[in-house]
Design goal:
The protein is an all-alpha fold. It is built from 10 helices and no strands. The termini are far apart.
Length: 242
């Protein structure tokens, strides 16, 4: 919660790399928390306003809770890979706090895609969709740390604290956390939404490995955002097919 959200912690817990490493297996729980808040805000706002306004409140709540942590990674990733042609240049651009044309355009399109996808889901299982998308997308992003190395050198002064590669037992936790929201799926056909999200995650992770040798925090944020939108679009596709 300290690393991925802006939610105040009622007790003083000192930061430590060991604590962060030990928390790796529980990262999907942030999806439960953030997704639950976004779904609750939508439900409450819809009692007073239109579904479109409720959606905007829901999206704003997600940004406030996380401090736009993953959205920032999405825009930085597009700036880096759009404007850089070598590993070093890509990493330097991604570290720049200023947002460029690639990042700005990508962020606007991402938010529009989220809004319109969720708007079309509003007559259906939107609360479950919001919750599930936040959980699955964080599982997809977190699983990349098991498969690929951190791209920045440990002695790089611009590198954020890297996360220890999860152990096989940690992936069992990821599987458990993934099964819980899927158990509440409106129909069994919705289980297919895992496949498109996994394909997007796999392609993006491979692309990052090819260009920069692994992942960075921005890369993981980009995967989380991309797979979250993929889940929304997949649910819409399943509704149209069944």
């Amino acid at each position: 919660m300290m690393f991925f959200t802006r939610i105040p912690i009622p007790v003083k817990i000192p930061y430590g790399q060991d604590y962060l490493d030990g928390a790796t297996r529980y990262f999907p729980l942030i999806g439960y928390l953030v997704g639950g808040i976004c779904a609750l805000v939508y439900f409450l706002a819809q009692q007073l306003w239109s579904p479109e306004i409720a959606l905007l409140f829901s999206m704003v709540s997600g940004v406030l809770v996380t401090g736009a942590f993953h959205e920032d990674g999405w825009s930085d990733m597009w700036d880096g890979f759009g404007g850089g042609w070598t590993k070093d240049r890509i990493l330097v651009i991604m570290k720049d706090s200023r947002i460029g044309a690639y990042g700005g355009i990508a962020l606007v399109l991402l938010l529009l895609m989220k809004f319109f996808a969720l708007r079309d889901l509003a007559p259906g299982p939107i609360l479950w969709s919001i919750w599930t998308a936040h959980v699955l997308s964080r599982i997809m992003a977190g699983s990349v740390t098991y498969q690929y190395p951190y791209a920045r050198a440990e002695d790089d002064p611009t590198a954020k604290p890297s996360i220890k590669r999860p152990q096989p037992v940690d992936l069992l936790f990821y599987l458990l956390f993934m099964l819980i929201p899927l158990a509440f799926a409106p129909t069994l056909a919705f289980l297919w939404i895992i496949l498109p999200a996994f394909l997007v995650r796999t392609y993006m992770a491979w692309y990052f490995k090819r260009w920069v040798g692994g992942y960075t925090g921005d890369c993981l944020g980009a995967i989380q955002q991309a797979t979250e939108v993929t889940v929304y679009l997949s649910i819409l596709a399943m509704i149209a097919l069944v």
